[in-house]
């Protein structure tokens, strides 16, 4: 398996990536909504460009550092889905606005007032609504409509819409529950926007996040934009939610067996420094492709420890290679400086994870 | 709090680091054992040099990439506590041996045979023994003694000793349990070496790992080397095990409050991309210094969501800064390109995390 690459390594199947990118673009266009993929999953300008060429209207970034990398690569329509606070970041935001159309999300008058002092044309903001994630934002309806009114009165900012991320959806146990949670999320946002309209504030963007909800929420009347991220690579978390299959997962950690201390134990050279602890404790959180009789047991920083079922103890001697599907693609990509792009089982390119580590 | 630094950021208190480094050096010298700190915790040549100047006899690395960074910085005595496999790594190991004395740990004849073909003077190897970690290595006693005999017969390698990492100790619930587990670990290794001696193989190094066990295992007769890593920074995992206090933790994630959507909710700009998911689910896995009424609830990639006790809802408005003690210092350091070194509350230097991301 890819003898030209040393392990552990991040390997991306570009055929699967293209299929995933194309399929989500179709979901958006079939439903008449804009697609603004979150680039935190790949952190690679090349793949952001692929998404734009397939029909995305712009990109979403989590942090200014990511947005700067993407703008540097020529991408000129960016939603910063994170409240920007403090002089150093505001200076960077002002510079970013010279190169790209930038919108920012937030959930407080304090952050809006700070942004409002930036100068130049009013900063377009989306107000984050809490549809079940219990992170940023107030609940939908009156609490959020009041917040919108308060922020709309602040000079220097223009409230253009509402934004939310998957909330309840991530806890769904069945496809029907997921579909219902996603629809409710979209409807919550649309109803809040209607309340704002009755208050005299007209909002033109209803932006809803997440891969698991994208297919369902795109069809809710009034939703204007979807922001899935993980769909480009998928992972075992998406498989568990029923929105991906092994065939639609594009990211692998290529790893080598470096110890077989007991007949049933396989130790490989990929631990949390390649796979993170995200999802640990969930059965099947990491899957070895083509090895249904191998179960990952735990990870140390540099070791992955797996269990082989009886009858398979002679397999996977020291030096064998495995491809692991991570639990959370976004976090895993952030651990690597480069990824190997493959097609038809051949390494064809090295991709720079240019926005890796952009925490600020 | 450090207004000259933007957040989120990794901040290291160098006064605490010096105290931790000096104290562990004293533990080693008082017990007549060598100290070979694991540099995976800091990944910084400057701090490795500080450890050597304080009396460490060499360093431990997990991966070749870390060792290369350290050798490049002039460090010339390195234990690679990881089985090295495959042509690309063996070529790099040969080059590394030109610049530094290098020992390698392993647990299989296959890896030893590969190393044995390296050429040059025999490769000094330590055989890993499983004292409860259930990762690499066979159980102590006969299974490991037999493995040592098998490896000792392989040309091109010289078995110089046994190596283990904390096993049972990490699961200890009381200081007495921890001390007992650590002693048992040391004794298991020493008894295995005695068995090897009776088999005609004399071993000169008994090397035992981990910060929680270091103070206890250093006093076991026959142990020659301790390899703690985390002690230089400490973290909440070490606090829970009773081997660190808040005062002896040196690493902080400096973060800013970017949302206060509900009276009891504080959202900051440090999530798993700064803090990892290591330790999630353990109460108090992340602590905010000086804020006993704040409890971290969950992390998303870029958001930390915390709960404020009643009576404190007016505190921590948007823009406030907090210092967070991570659950696992080693993994957190790996997420940053630089750390800010502080003394007496002043930023005095930027430290390059030079061996960050060295997974190969």
TrEMBL record, chains A, B:
Report the SUPFAM superfamilies cross-referenced here.
PLP-binding barrel
Question: What are the protein's UniProt keywords?
Answer: Lyase
| GO MF annotation terms | D-serine ammonia-lyase activity
Q: Give any single GO term for biological process.
A: D-serine catabolic process
* Signal sequence annotation: none
Q: Which Gene3D superfamilies match?
A: Alanine racemase, D-serine dehydratase-like domain
Give the matching InterPro entries. Ala_racemase_N, D-amino_acid_metab_enzyme, D-ser_dehydrat-like_dom, D-ser_dehydrat-like_sf, PLP-binding_barrel
Q: Does the keyword Cell membrane apply?
A: no
Q: Name one Pfam family in it.
A: D-ser_dehydrat
Q: Which residues form the D-serine dehydratase-like domain?
A: 250-343
Domain of life of the native organism? Bacteria
Family that this chain belongs to: Belongs to the DSD1 family.
Instruction: Quote the PANTHER family the UniProt record gives.
Output: D-SERINE DEHYDRATASE (PTHR28004:SF2), ZGC:162816-RELATED (PTHR28004)
Protein's name according to its UniProt entry:
D-serine deaminase-like pyridoxal phosphate-dependent protein
Q: Which organism is it from?
A: Nonomuraea endophytica
């Amino acid at each position: 398996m890819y003898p030209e690459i040393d392990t552990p390594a991040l390997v991306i199947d570009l055929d699967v990536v293209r299929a995933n990118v194309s399929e989500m673009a179709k979901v958006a266009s079939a439903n008449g909504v804009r697609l603004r993929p979150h680039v935190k999953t790949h952190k690679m300008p090349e793949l952001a460009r692929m998404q734009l060429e397939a029909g995305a209207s712009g990109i979403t970034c989590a942090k200014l550092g990511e947005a700067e990398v993407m703008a540097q690569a020529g991408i000129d329509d960016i939603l910063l889905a994170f409240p920007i606070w403090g002089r150093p970041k505001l200076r960077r935001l002002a510079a970013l606005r010279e190169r790209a159309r930038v919108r920012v999300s937030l959930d407080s008058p304090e952050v809006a007032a700070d942004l409002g002092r930036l100068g130049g044309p009013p900063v377009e903001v989306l107000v984050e609504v809490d549809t079940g994630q219990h992170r940023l934002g107030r609940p939908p309806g009156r609490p959020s409509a009041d917040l919108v009114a308060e922020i709309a009165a602040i000079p220097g900012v223009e409230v253009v819409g509402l934004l939310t991320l998957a909330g309840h959806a991530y806890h769904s146990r069945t496809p029907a529950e997921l579909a219902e949670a996603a629809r409710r999320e979209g409807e919550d946002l649309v109803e809040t926007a209607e309340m704002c309209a009755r208050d005299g504030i007209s909002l033109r963007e209803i932006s809803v996040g997440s891969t698991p909800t994208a297919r369902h929420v795109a069809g809710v009347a009034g939703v204007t934009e979807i922001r899935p991220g993980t769909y480009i690579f998928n992972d075992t978390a998406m498989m568990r939610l029923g929105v991906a299959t092994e065939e639609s997962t594009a990211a692998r950690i290529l790893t080598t067996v470096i110890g077989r201390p007991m007949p049933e134990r396989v130790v490989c050279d990929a631990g949390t420094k390649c796979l993170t602890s995200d999802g640990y404790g969930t059965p099947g959180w990491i899957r070895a492709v083509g090895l249904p009789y191998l179960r990952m047991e735990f990870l140390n920083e540099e070791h992955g420890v797996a269990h082989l079922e009886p009858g398979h103890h002679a397999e996977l001697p020291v030096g064998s290679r495995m491809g692991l599907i991570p639990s959370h693609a976004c976090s895993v990509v952030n651990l690597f400086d480069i990824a190997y792009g493959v097609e038809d089982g051949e390494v064809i390119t090295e991709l720079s994870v240019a926005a890796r580590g952009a925490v600020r």
